Amino acid sequence: MTTASNISCPCCKATDSQWLGDLPGIDRFAGERLARELVGGKLYRCRNCQLKFRYPLLDAAQYDQMYATGDNAIWTGAILRPDWDLVINQIKRAGSTRRSVLDFGCHTGELLSRLDPQYRRFGVEINRTAAQVASERHHVKIWSSLDEIPGDLRFDVIVAVDVVEHMRNPKDLIDRLSNLLSESGILIVTTGDAENHFWNRFGANWWYCINPEHIAFLSEPWLSYLTRQSELSVAQCHRFRHRSLGAFRLFIHALFMFFYGLFPVTYVRISKMIKKIRSRHTEDRVLGNGVSADHLFIVLTKNFEL
Questions:
Q1: Is the CA virtual torsion 126, 129, 132, 136 positive or negative?
Q2: pLDDT per residue as tens digits for the range 77-102
Q3: Among candidates 165, 146, 147, 302, which has minimal Cα distance to 226?
Q4: What is the DSSP string of 62-122?
Q5: Which residues on neighbouring strands pair with residue 33, listed in sequence order?
Q6: Which spans in the chain are helix H?
Q7: Residue partners of 125: CB distance under 8 A and separation at least 6
């Protein structure tokens, strides 16, 4: 059952939020084991803009430091990524005149490497090791932050794959990225769908919320708020499965997802017991990725004045 709270929304600053449940403490961040467990906090939904968000948060500098030193293998392309196929196909459909592509949060540049050589490829990546791999292996121009991008540079396509959920105010990020678009450019965003069936069923116990680096969660109602408050239009928005699973793995992932959703305290206790026995091989996570179409593929365009 949800209750009212005066917690301020990190996006619209409204103080009318719903408490959706408690989040577990985790001792991993971006794939790295931490010296001590991070406080999980609570999950809220803003009644004004419909953003779901984690509270309380760490200082921005603390997050930056953990991302900069995180495990550079955690977001590699070792597994089949349906979202990457969606992004590549969207870029190709966008037309041959769109030649410059910026991948915000490009990590090791695996997504950019799948583009044809005709595209001019750029990336923003805070993790130093991953950025070096992208630069040296895939010959991608890398900046560590948006602030480093030359002020007169614009991009035909900007991609933010699995990034906005890591930002305390996703609207601020999307606004900054949209300002870097060329005329008729497109912004492609993928992220978890905060209004999917299972999230509405399990609340704070949905598998996607257990990651402490996930702090803000988008949905189609939030996108409506975004377009009312900005010069952006939603050209496309649909749900997709973030991961392809065979029948057996789909069953196992669904089993663990439902177990955590229904009995989170028991799940976490068992997970911690197993971790004590196999500490080097056990992570704090919930299987569930790929069970349903619980992610959003979003294409945004900017409304340039004529």
A1: negative
A2: 445 688 999 999 999 988 766 689 99
A3: 302
A4: HHHHHHHTS-TTTTSS-S--HHHHHHHHHHHHT-TT--EEEEET-TTSHHHHTS-TTSEEE
A5: 28
A6: 60-68, 82-93, 110-113, 128-138, 170-178, 197-202, 220-229, 247-262, 264-277
A7: 105, 106, 107, 131, 134, 142, 144
pTM of the model: 0.91
- 298 with 234: CB under 8 angstroms? yes
- Nearest-angstrom CA–CA distance, 257 and 42: 19
Q: What is the pLDDT of residues 146-186, one digit of tens each?
A: 999 999 999 999 999 999 999 999 999 999 999 999 988 99
HSE-up of residue 218 (Cα within 13 Å, Cβ side): 28
Nearest to 36 by CA among 45, 51, 25: 25
Closest of 161, 164, 88 to residue 119, by C-alpha: 88
Contacts of 270 (CB under 8 A, 6+ apart): none
Listed residue (294, 268, 231, 233) closest to 40, CA to CA: 268
Predicted confidence band at 284 (pLDDT cuts at 50, 70, 90)? low
Cβ pair 31, 74 in contact under 8 A: yes
